[in-house]
Write a structure and sequence with these properties.
Blueprint lengths: L1 E6 L5 H9 L7 E8 L6 E8 L3 H16 L2 E9 L1 E3 L4 E9 L2 H17 L3 E7 L3 E3 L4 H8 L13
Parallel strand pairs: 1-4
Antiparallel strand pairs: 2-6, 3-5, 3-7, 4-6, 7-8
């Protein structure tokens, strides 16, 4: 099962995990990551823009790659867009598998790629300035570690 949503509305982690696992007895592990808008460095808000259609396709492509790399039983990716203030949820990645290792690895893989490859643009509003955020080399380095050989799909706990 794969769920991908790009939306303005907030999401609820518990509801999304329940929807992914409801009635399933084959799932032994669920890993999740929730990105939240920080209020550090005097940030008042951020605005996330995306390219509709292209963004969903790009996220789906990376979910499919994760499913090819690891024996996943379900994936949910929700990414918000629009104006967000500190404390707002931004992104949710939930991965389900029979064992923890593929669930953890796939969630981390997906977040690394969402940070670097998904067509989202971020503008930060601070007390003294408003500016578009440039890509970070550290994010590219994190995503770069996934290139090369893929793990075996039968990876167990």
């Amino acid at each position: 099962m794969m769920t991908i949503r790009l939306q303005r509305e907030d999401f609820d982690l518990a509801d999304e995990i329940a929807a992914l696992t409801r009635g399933r007895t084959d799932i032994g592990a669920v890993a999740s990551f929730t990105g939240i808008c920080r209020g550090d460095d005097q940030m008042a808000a951020m605005t996330l823009e995306h390219y509709p259609g292209m963004a969903e396709a790009e996220v789906a492509r990376h979910v499919e790659e994760a499913q090819a790399r690891w024996p996943l039983l379900g994936v949910t990716v929700i990414h918000r867009y629009g104006r967000l203030v500190p404390g707002d949820n931004i992104v949710l990645v939930v991965t389900a598998a029979a064992h923890r290792e593929p669930a953890f690895a796939a969630a981390e893989f997906l977040m690394d790629y969402l940070k670097t490859r998904a067509p989202f643009w971020k503008k930060e509003e601070r007390a003294e300035s408003v500016q578009w955020v440039a890509p970070k080399g550290t994010d590219d380095a994190a995503a770069g570690r996934w290139t090369g050989s893929a793990p075996r799909r039968d990876a167990a706990e």
